[in-house]
Amino acid sequence: MGKMTLEDLRKLRESKKNEIEKRETEGKDIEIVIGMGTCGIAAGAKESLDAFINAIDNAGLKNVSVKQTGCMGLCYVEPTVSVKVPGMPDTIYGKVDGEVATKIVEEHIVNKTLVNNHIFDKPAADIITE
Fold first, then answer.
1. Is residue 13 domain-resident?
2. Is residue 101 over pLDDT 60?
3. Quick check: 37 and 71 in contact, CB under 8 A?
4. Where residue 49 sits, what CATH number does that domain have?
5. Residues with Cβ < 8 Å from 110, sequence gap 6 or more?
6. How many CB atoms lie under 10 A from the CB of residue 56?
7. Predicted pLDDT of residue 123
């Protein structure tokens, strides 16, 4: 990497500051949690995370927090994302690439409709064997 100018450093600072603000939960009523365990990262969760941040910025949403967690236990449909929106059911989406992340922001968060072909859920507790 070459030398950075002062302007480059300012742009980088603003970019990172924007990303950090998305992770803060105070005063935000919508929550997106992205599974960033080894399986999620290998399946492309970092790209999904970036797509969520871009889509939220493009929509001008200030009430959405974006957080990371470990594996959600749905490795077969990684990357997985949990979305909590007031007045809607808590939803786990699977196979969330950049395009689906944008669709989730536009349809689920903005228009309050589920993205049906990507909804998955954890197995019921009574069928899990240890």
1. no
2. yes
3. yes
4. 3.40.30.10
5. 59, 61
6. 24
7. 53
